[in-house]
Design a protein that fits this description.
Blueprint: H1 6-9, H2 13-16, H3 26-40, H4 62-68, E1 79-83, H5 88-99, E2 107-111, H6 127-132, E3 135-138, E4 145-146, H7 147-157, H8 161-167, H9 170-185, H10 192-208, E5 221-222, H11 244-249, E6 254-261, E7 264-271, E8 282-285, H12 294-307, E9 314-318, E10 321-325, E11 331-335, H13 342-360, E12 364-368, H14 369-377, H15 383-389, E13 401-407, E14 412-418, E15 421-422, H16 433-436, H17 455-473, E16 484-488, H18 495-498, H19 502-510, E17 517-519, H20 524-556, H21 565-573, E18 583-585, H22 586-595, H23 602-612, E19 619-621, H24 622-633, E20 639-640, H25 644-653, E21 660-666, H26 671-686, E22 691-697, H27 702-711, E23 716-717, E24 719-724, E25 727-733, H28 737-747, H29 755-760
Parallel strand pairs: 1-2, 6-9, 9-12, 13-16, 16-17, 20-22, 21-22
Antiparallel strand pairs: 1-3, 3-4, 5-23, 6-7, 7-8, 10-11, 13-14, 14-15, 18-19, 21-24, 24-25
Helix pairs in contact: 5-10, 7-8, 8-10, 9-10, 12-13, 14-20, 17-19
């Protein structure tokens, strides 16, 4: 169950009772809030970790499992008990079962409230089914036990069979059941042997009488005050004392970098200001083929963040991206990013990021493996970077147009950098790499093992590489000529045994010599550091794109989501050329952004231009500008936000637009929240012109816990807030649809003021 810093928050309780999120100026208000929060919090950082790298595999026995956490599958479990870890009552019952010590290693406690819970791995039992009645699964895969048979098997295994027998006595069973329901309905906490016995007896008694005993009753869930964050967790308070604007301009100080390759996901915390590894380097093994399963990758990444006690931003290097295919009933389908257009690649990358955010419960950004090695090769923090800055020819230099390639027998991946900045508009579809690389003619051109002495095998591998590098160099995005190819990943491990063959082979295969080949990094560490470096840039860049988006909205006097094509054209026309008003050069585009008060670093300006100039024409057409703007605005209804700063950004964007912001605060395990979601989304569609609807999970991570529990003083979920110009104008709890509709109608001026209070007599709004 996610948790919060209770002791360290007490100093803020008084402040938290008045959730005022903005004053006369959003920047000044946010800066004031940040300073107030900084004064009243302590950092609570974990003791410095050893800088020595430690590669750790998955747990092999129960002792390792205990070290890694209660949700890890014991090696020899007999029964799997599906419980709601977000419910204090369920946790009390679980504690009662564990307290006997007799079921250790035999009972696997599976928390269905975790976002990573996968019904497919637990005999198809969905969250909703598990919430209806107790479910106990057998290791042999037999029919799941439910109700009284489940309780009898589970209690007998932990040595509490006596509770079943005792509860059959009418007077005792009834009394315990009444106490159980009283505790459950109020989400009370109990402890000690007596409390555990009451919970056990009450639960059995209710089952014997056929009474409903789930946590999904009522229209709201309580217990948010009990949510805690691990005292040793890191990353949740990064930059908490930074000014509002610098949080967007500078990016995070540390990121959890992850690198997925060869069926393994490696991860470590990286200080992106220095490049130092600031934790152990951990690994999670995946089942064969699971690297192309986004759910499996998400589960592994979540496990790694828990082991590293990380609550900040996450950057992961993946072989490709995923998107939901409507033709396959919304199934997530893998794509090699080289096989889609730059615009499709951007959309699918963002979709992949959102899938992982929901799986991990943290802010996640995605780079490809080739991109990670490109960032890692630059040695952004080391001697190579310093020499490059003063004009020397460093081994790790990325000046000019540089290609990065990673290759194995299964796939080849590439990325292009121009003067160290990723070319996001590079279109590799002409090369057809995903299909061409696995053609039958290359079946015998596998990468040879290190001890291979057969020159023909090395020549076959070099030929395969040469042919496909030539295909990339023939693409429009690379026709200006590459300064070099950086060979990275597993292909770099035996670089010296085949790379010298490529120049001659490329002349034979393509009629011209390939760009010079340089050996890049081949280990997991460079991939992890490179993912963190690329992720740091993407976090910073994405935040600044939001600033540009907000500036455009303020320039035309509307919410960014409601800016029309006509208004965009008028803005664009102010900077259009005398000859062609539908086209501006890159300098004019930069002037347009600057004129709106947004100052961007040089690398972000070049990245922004690449994002918009899809055709690589060194100019921007209105159609390109409009397509880019629509892509960064997003069309998701009732978007889920994963950080406190993301909520602040939405409030900032809607300042002065006349458009309200409706925020729903829920729990990942809150059944009333789940049932209410379709109505919330429909209301978002119906009121799009007047209000922007967003939601958070108040128990998802340290940032959302702080926002929900300490800043907004939420007591139960779902709780709804309405903001106007950054200030809370309404708040109520519960999933009553009529009550919600009346609140929204009053706040949007559709029914007289005071109607809601007269009808529902709520506690006065803060």
């Amino acid at each position: 169950c996610p948790s919060g810093r209770r002791r360290r928050r007490r100093a803020r309780r008084a402040h938290a009772q008045t959730p005022m999120l903005a004053s006369s100026s959003p920047v000044a208000a946010a800066a004031s809030r940040t300073a107030a929060h900084a004064r009243s919090r302590t950092r609570g950082r974990a003791p410095p970790r050893s800088r020595a790298l430690v590669i750790r595999a998955s747990a092999k026995d129960d002792d390792d499992a205990q070290k890694r956490g209660p949700d890890v599958e014991p090696a020899n479990w007999k029964y799997a008990y599906l419980f709601d870890g977000a419910c204090p009552v369920c946790r009390s019952l679980k504690s009662a079962l564990e307290s006997t010590g007799k079921g250790k290693g035999k009972v696997w406690y599976v928390d269905i409230s975790e976002p990573s819970y996968d019904a497919k791995k637990h005999q198809g039992i969905t969250f909703e089914q598990a919430m209806e009645t107790i479910h106990v699964l057998k290791r042999d895969g037999g029919e799941p036990l439910t109700g009284l048979p489940a309780i009898e098997a589970l209690f007998a295994e932990v040595g509490m069979g006596w509770a079943v027998k005792l509860a059959t006595m009418p007077a005792i069973g009834l009394a315990a059941s009444v106490m159980y329901k009283l505790i459950s309905s109020n989400r009370l906490k109990i402890g000690g042997a007596m409390g555990a016995s009451v919970m056990a007896l009450g639960r059995v008694g209710m089952e014997i009488r056929g009474e409903k005993a789930s946590c999904s009753e009522g229209d709201e869930c309580r217990g948010i005050a009990d949510v805690k964050v691990d005292e040793e967790a890191r990353g949740g308070e990064e930059d908490s004392d930074a000014p509002f604007e610098s949080m967007y301009a500078e990016g995070p100080k540390a990121i959890l970098g992850a690198y997925a390759s060869g069926g393994i996901v490696s991860a470590a915390i990286v200080n992106v200001r220095t490049g130092e590894i600031d934790s152990e380097l951990l690994q999670e093994s995946l089942e064969e083929g699971a690297l192309l399963d986004i759910e499996a990758v998400g589960a592994a990444l979540r496990s790694l963040t828990k082991q590293l006690k990380w609550q900040g931003g996450v950057a992961i290097a993946l072989p490709g991206v995923w998107h939901a295919d409507e033709k396959l009933a919304g199934k997530n389908v893998y794509s090699a990013i080289e096989s889609v257009s730059p615009l499709e690649g951007r959309r699918e990358r963002e979709e992949t990021e959102e899938l992982l955010r929901n799986a991990v419960g943290l802010d996640v950004t995605v780079v490809t493996g080739a991109e990670a090695h490109g960032y890692g090769h630059q040695d952004l923090w080391g001697d190579a970077a310093r020499r490059q800055k003063i004009g020397e020819n460093a081994d790790g230099a990325m000046n000019g147009l540089t290609g990065v390639v990673t290759a194995g027998h299964e796939a080849v991946h590439v990325a292009l950098f121009k003067d160290g900045v990723l070319r996001t508009n590079a279109d590799f579809r002409e090369a057809d790499l995903a299909i061409s690389w696995i053609e039958p003619e290359w079946a015998n051109a596998k990468p040879p093992p290190a001890d291979c002495t057969d020159e023909e095998q090395w020549s076959a591998w070099a030929t395969r590489i040469a042919v496909h590098l030539a295909k990339v160099e023939a693409c429009r995005c690379a026709r200006g000529g590459l300064a070099r190819w950086v060979v990275s990943g597993s292909a770099a491990q035996n670089f010296d045994k085949w790379s010298h063959l490529v120049p001659k082979l490329s002349v034979v295969q393509a009629g011209k010599a390939a760009a010079p080949l340089i050996k890049g990094g081949s280990n997991q560490l460079e991939g992890v550091r490179g993912a963190a470096a690329g992720g740091a840039f993407r976090f910073r860049y994405t935040a600044d794109v939001r600033r540009v988006r907000a500036a455009i909205g303020k320039e035309v006097g509307r919410s960014p989501q409601l800016v029309s094509s006509i208004q965009l054209r008028e803005l664009f026309g102010k900077f259009g050329g005398d000859i062609n008003e539908d086209m501006i050069d890159l300098d004019a585009f930069v002037r347009m952004v600057s004129a709106m008060g947004v100052r961007l670093p040089e690398d972000e300006v070049r990245e922004l231009v690449c994002d918009i100039d899809i055709a690589c024409e060194q100019s921007v057409s209105f159609d390109q500008f409009e397509a880019w703007y629509k892509s960064v605005i997003g069309t998701e209804v009732a978007q889920v936000l994963h950080t406190e700063s993301a909520v602040d950004q939405v409030l900032n964007e809607e300042m002065g637009t006349g458009r309200a912001v409706v925020l729903q605060v829920g729990f990942t395990s809150c059944n009333p929240c789940k049932k209410f979601l379709p109505h919330f989304e429909q209301s978002a569609r119906n009121n799009r012109e007047k209000a922007r609807f967003v939601r958070i999970y108040g128990n998802e991570n340290a940032s959302t816990i702080h926002l929900a529990r300490d800043r907004l003083a939420v007591k139960s979920t779902p709780t709804f807030f309405v903001f106007k110009d950054g200030e809370v104008t309404h708040m109520h709890s519960g999933s009553n649809e009529e009550k919600f509709d009346d609140a929204i109608a009053e706040q949007l001026g559709e029914i007289p003021a005071g109607t809601f209070a007269e009808k529902y007599a709520p506690v006065a709004s803060p």
